[in-house]
Amino acid sequence: MTDLEQELAALIVESLALHDVNPADLDVDTPLFNEGLGLDSVDALELAMAVHKKYGVQIKADDPSVRDTFHSIGSLATHIERARGTELR
Fold first, then answer.
1. Domains within the chain, CATH numbers bracketed
2. What is the pLDDT of residues 29-40, one digit of tens each?
3. pLDDT value of position 89
4. Is the CB of residue 43 less than 8 Å from the CB of residue 16?
5. Is the CB of residue 75 less than 8 Å from the CB of residue 69?
6. N or C: which end of the chain has fewer CB within 10 A?
7. Is 60 helix (H, G, I), strand (E, B) or coil?
């Protein structure tokens, strides 16, 4: 995992109060919704706000690629990197 992906894993666990999840145990490709972490739409909103606050990157619900953005930690990191104009990988 890149530094950004590790930060995102910690941000997900912290901002969503996933007390039974250790950020170090999360895989970059684990789905955030359904069979993965089991997040829901409210979690997505909270996570989008946390990403905006920490990284200054907005994730809009009406963006056609929002499902792809929230697919996994890796896809979320890629979105942040692109939005910030950096490529950390």
1. 3-84 (1.10.1200.10)
2. 999 998 889 999
3. 45
4. yes
5. yes
6. C
7. coil
φ, ψ for residue 16 (rounded to 5)? Answer: -100, 5
Pick from 4, 50, 5, 54: nearest CA to 27: 5
| pLDDT of residue 88 exceeding 70 | no
Q: What angle do CA 20, 21, 26 make, to 5 degrees?
A: 165
User: Nearest-CA neighbor of 70 among 33, 21, 17?
Assistant: 33
- pTM reported for the whole predicted model: 0.89
**36, amino acid identity:** G
The number of residues in the chain equals: 89
Position 11, amino acid: L
